Amino acid sequence: MVISGVSKSDSLDILQPANLTSDMILEMEEEFALLRNAFSKTSITDEHIAFLTKQWYISVLARIRINAFRIELVGGLYEDLLSSLVASVEAEAAVGNAVYILPSLYNHDCDPNAHIIWIDNADAKIKALRDIDEGEELRICYIDASMDHNARQEILLQGFGFQCNCSRCLHGD
C-alpha cells in the first residue's frame, strides 16, 4: 500500500512497537535483505521504495507483532459469544491477521467489557460482554483470559511488553 501511494510510510507510527530480541531482529534483517533483493529484480523504481530501509521494516514489523488481530470468522447469531470464541480458538479457526488502527488502540484487561468480532468480510465489530457505564473505557483481552494469573502475566510481558495491573491481576485471580 505504501509503494502504491495509498498509505504513507509512517501510517503505523502511532502504534506501540514490540520489544524485540536480538534473534528476532536478526531474522527481520535477513527478511529485509530478501525483500530488497526481490524488489531489485522488478520494475519498481528506487523512488517508490525509498522509504524501505532496514529500520523502517523492523519498526513496522515490531508494531504489527503486537497490534495485529487474529481474524476469526464467526457465523450465525451471537447468543453464546464466549462459547463460540473459545471453540474457534481451540479449532485454530483464524483466517489471518490484520492491523486495524482504531481497534489497535483498545487497552487490555483480563476481565474485558468488550470483544472484537470479525465478520464475513473481515470487518471488525465490537461486542459488549456486559453493561458498560457511560464514560467507561472499552477494554478487550489480548490473550486467553482463562489462563492462570502467572501464565497471563508472562505472556503479556513477553508478547506485549507490559505487566498487567487490571483489577483481576491485582487480586491474583
- The unreliable regions are none
Number of strands: 6
Distance between the termini: 43 Å
CATH class of the largest domain: Mainly Beta
- Shape, principal axes of CA atoms: globular
Q: How does the helix and strand content classify structurally?
A: alpha+beta
Percent strand: 5-15%
Radius of gyration: 19 Å
Helix percentage: 25-40%
CATH architecture of the largest domain: Beta Complex
* Major β-sheet strand ordering: 1-2
Question: What's the CATH H-level superfamily name of the largest domain?
Answer: SET domain
Q: How many helical stretches?
A: 6
Major sheet, described briefly? Answer: 2 strands, antiparallel
Do you know the CATH topology of the largest domain? Beta-clip-like
Number of separate domains: 2
Mean pLDDT: 83
Spell out the helices and strands N to C. Answer: HHEHEHEEEEHH
